[in-house]
Structures
1.
Amino acid sequence: MTHGSLFSGIGGFDLAAEWMGWENKFHCEWNEFGQKVLKYYWPDAELFTDITKSDFTKYANQIDILTGGFPCQPYSTAGKRLGKEDERHLWPEMLRVIREVKPTWIVGENVRGLVSWNGGLVFHEVQTDLENEGYEVQPFLIPAASVNAPHRRDRIWFVAYSNNKGGNNGFRKIQKKNGEIPKRDNNAQFSYANFYNDWINFPTQSPICNRDDALSDRLDSIAFSKWRRESIKAGGNAIVPQVVYQIFKAIELYEKI
């Protein structure tokens, strides 16, 4: 399967896609340190820098899964929660890329605070926008602790599927199993029987002092003194790849049904 990532950071989504054996076709990251990490580990993937100035139409109908942890600062309880008034409210840009690329699957990620900001306005808007583009959408609340990470790190995950390409995959195939299509559940929890539990390469205190970042030293060990602060910030903003790996495995399972 082919994968493209937006707001890629240091490549958490891309690492999970690599674990799946998928091809990383492109990334999009404006931060210079993140760009260096992405170029180092995935030199064959195209790197876009500023999402607001990038055209992705060349990848139309060529990407199976598009991912993106659109900036969380506008909604995080750790910030001012300016929401749409924050210049980092970039969901509209991600939606534009979705329209240009037309991926089969979308996995979006944000902080738990998205659910409560302004009565869930943006939380519902994301789902409505995707549904208007022809996607079936299901949000999940999954903490990093669900894959045995040594910290909680609650995150909202939007998993969306479109069968506009004529396939017969995705959520609707569950109807074959139990005669019922999943409906949107804003309080949904995601759970798994088996998790990716190998934390040997994911120390709780990494060489750059990220501490409980749950990230492989593959992604942060190239840091050096000039980038120390950027390394720590990148670790704090990154997704936990073990979580999205489980989502990717579920998607692959649906594709095989």
2.
Amino acid sequence: MRLARTIVEVKERTTLCTSCFNIGLSETCAICADGRRDATVVCVVEDPRDIVAVERTREYTGRYHVLGGALNPLEGVGPDQLRIRELLARLEQDEVREVILCTNPNLEGDTTAMYLARLLKPLGLKVTRIASGLPVGGDLEYADELTLGRALEGRREVEA
């Protein structure tokens, strides 16, 4: 019974942020309310759990936008089922200079990132995509062709 009450309490107390659609305890989530965050950079993710993963890196200090999924025509998920209109409205309002497309490195995530890039580039924004490739500590001999190919595509110059 305690578990059931706790689940009900969590459901009643949490809400979606009206700006980024992250899960929070009030209309504005803790990240959007933090004045130290860089409001000129928005990281677009599929799900609120993705924010947790990015935050664990301690490398990103901007804001977020949660799409609520990825494009998947076979499952009936098109642009109208995602929070793309809200993203566009937000980009018009705020002084955003860069949008980082941080969708999953799979067919749906890549399709979503490509769709968003085509939509956002004409707005004069810097649109970037997270790199993908080999995990730290991985062996080349065990990497599949697609992963190794992406690692080669996303290579960067070595600083001496």
3.
Amino acid sequence: MYRTPELRAYQYFIDPSWSGGVYASPGVAGSRAGALIAGCWASMMSVGEDGYINSCKSIVGTAKRIARAIHEHPDLEILGSPIASVVAWTSSTLDIYDIADALTAKGWHLNSLQNPPAMHVAVTLPITKVQDKFLSDLFECVEDEKAKERDRIAAGAGAKGKSKGDSAALYGVAGSLPNKSIVVELTTVFLDTLYKA
């Protein structure tokens, strides 16, 4: 309930340099809205301590298996030392954003990262049930990108061709701008549209 959009913009939190990409939140609470907290509490009451512990074991075990499989792949590199449920990786031989877009085309909705260019999966209970399919699709996308890279080199275009997908457009461009003020302005306009909807 602001008189002008300019006044409303002061409540926004926008970080264009966050390693996860452009982070924008319409308020201080970020993505921790009250409904999510209530839902989390209700879930905890429903599954109890044993259910929580079993879920945790399954999620962390799956994350470790995914991290191990990615670590063993010659074209992928794990970032950091994942100890819980989030696994991030990059590639020094292929454009990671092309791989991200290929996974999106297969129905996976993962997060791309910037600084460095990478992607990550936040393992949840549904992922534990499809971990084999996820790894199979990931490695298939890597092989497809390797084939495209070989074709580019054979055609004389050089290695690591220019990404053209959505991930590269958002994360590659935003991450490469030395002055992030335009990113902040565009993000503010986006948040404003949420209030007009």
